[in-house]
Amino acid sequence: MEYLRLSRQNEEDLVRKAIDVLISGGIVAFPTETFYALGAKYDREDALMRLYELKRRPFEKAIPVMIGSSEQLPLIARDVPEEAVRLMEKYWPGPLTMVLKAEEGVSTYLTAGTAKVAVRVPGESFALALVRRAGFPVTATSANPSGVSPAEDAQAVLKYFGETLDLIIDGGQTPGGLPSTIVEIVNGEVKILRKGRMRKVTLD
C-alpha cells in the first residue's frame, strides 16, 4: 500500500499514479468535495468485488460512480431523460448523484441487479481532476465500512482499512457534512431518493 500526500505541485503526478493503479485493478482512496471515496475502475470486476468485501457492503446495495463529464455517460447509461440532462447542465460538477438506466453490460456490482446506475460529476476536488484525466467512470463509494461514519480525512481511511488498499491520496480534511443528494427522474419529475448537500433540486 502506498500513502501519498497531495499538494498543488504534485496533483498531476498523483492523478497519473492513481489512474495507473485503477487500470491495473487496484483500489484508491481519495478526497472528494464531500468525504473520502474508494475508487475502482468501473469495468474491473475483480476490483469491484474486492471493494464490496472491503466495505462489507450488502450486495443488494449498488455502488455509485463518478465521471469527468456528461460525455462519458454512454459508457454506463442509456435512454437518459431530457429532464436529467437539464439537471446535469445546471448542477454538475457538484454533489448531485443521478440515478439513470444502466447501459447493457454494466457490472451488477454497480447496479445491484436494478438495471440502474447512480452517477455524478464531482465538485472541485482531487476526485474531479482524477475522473477528468482518466476518461472512464470510477466508483464513488464512501471510504468506510458499511454502517460506519464516512472518512473526512486520510487518517480515518487508514484506520478503517489499514494496508488493504493499494493507494491512499492524503488531501487533508474534506468538508464532510452531508453526502451528495441522490435524485431520479420519474414521469418527468425530480424524485429525491436521498437528501444531501444539495438542498433544493429543480428543473427550473
CATH architecture: Alpha-Beta Complex
Question: Radius of gyration over alpha carbons?
Answer: 16 Å
Overall domain count: 1
Major β-sheet annotation: 6 strands, mixed
Which spans of ≥5 residues are poorly predicted at pLDDT below 50?
Answer: none
| Ends distance | 46 Å
What structural class is derived from the secondary structure elements? alpha/beta
Question: Which term fits the overall shape?
Answer: globular
Can you tell me the CATH class?
Alpha Beta
Give structural notes:
The protein has helices spanning 11-23, 45-55, 82-91, 108-111, 126-134, 154-161; strands at 2-5, 28-31, 36-39, 65-66, 96-101, 116-120, 138-139, 141-142, 167-170, 181-186, 189-194. The strands form two sheets. The protein has a six-stranded mixed β-sheet with strand order 7-4-6-5-10-11. Strand 2 (28-31) and strand 3 (36-39) form a beta hairpin. Helix content is 27%, strand content 22%. The chain has a single domain (2-194), classed as DHBP synthase (Alpha-Beta Complex), CATH 3.90.870. The chain is built from six helices and eleven strands. It is globular, with a radius of gyration of 16 Å. The model has no long low-confidence stretch (mean pLDDT 95). With 204 residues, the protein is an alpha/beta fold.
